[in-house]
Each structure stands twice: as structure tokens, then as C-alpha cells.
Design goal:
With about 110 residues, this protein is mainly β. Helices cover about 0% and strands about 50% of the residues. The chain has no helices and 9 strands. Strands 1, 3, 4, 5 and 8 form a 5-stranded antiparallel beta sheet that branches. Strands 2, 6, 7 and 9 form a 4-stranded antiparallel beta sheet that branches.
Length: about 110
């Protein structure tokens, strides 16, 4: 992680990594979709998009889990976990015990 690019995690050592994470959205009854997706080097990671929550979300905090996947990465690749929605204006991610998170675990060499 670097303060100049706070949404990115850069791979320090090549090999297999296990990705998991989630994003929590503050209560907002507008829109019908809440989701989260993995991006690799700025593009949607193949298989990195979980089925989003679709329907009319209640006006309560909603947590959406990212797809947990193994991925082969090389030094210098970077990952981002991006929340998305179709509200039509910005909404905030939740904080506190239900805040967004990403977990990246080294699984071994390729």
C-alpha cells in the first residue's frame, strides 16, 4: 500500500495469492444493485466479479462479499477491490465494525 495510490495493493513477490474481501454500503434505499469486484492492473480481473445484490435494498447497511479466488500474480501487479452500485449519485461505504476490507494471502510460488 502507498499513500500516493491508496486504493491499490502492489504485489511484492510473484506467485499464487488468495483474494477475499467485502464492501459495506451505508443505508440507502435508492437503486437496485450493490456489488464489489476485483481489478488487476486497472482492468476487471477474470472471475473477479461476484453476483451482486439486486433488488430494492432496504434503508439499512448492506455488506457485499467479493468473490474469493486464487490468482497468479507477478511482481509489480496491483490489485484493487472496487464497490459499485446503480443509485445514480454517490453513496458512502460503511465504517466501524462493518467497514470494507480486502485480504490478500500469499499461497506459494507459481
Amino acid at each position: 500500500w502507498a499513500s500516493g495510490a491508496p486504493t491499490r495493493w502492489t504485489v511484492p513477490m510473484g506467485g499464487w495469492y488468495d483474494l477475499s474481501g467485502a464492501s459495506a454500503f451505508d443505508s440507502n434505499a435508492a437503486g437496485t444493485v450493490r456489488g464489489v469486484a476485483w481489478f488487476l492492473n486497472g482492468g476487471l480481473l477474470n472471475g473477479g466479479h461476484a453476483r451482486p445484490h439486486a433488488n430494492t435494498p432496504a434503508a439499512v447497511t448492506l455488506t457485499v462479499e467479493a468473490r474469493s479466488i486464487p490468482v497468479l500474480l507477478v511482481v509489480g501487479d496491483y490489485l484493487e477491490l472496487a464497490p459499485y452500485h446503480n443509485v445514480g449519485s454517490s453513496i458512502t461505504t460503511a465504517t466501524g465494525s462493518i467497514r470494507p476490507f480486502m485480504s490478500i494471502r500469499y499461497g506459494g510460488p507459481s
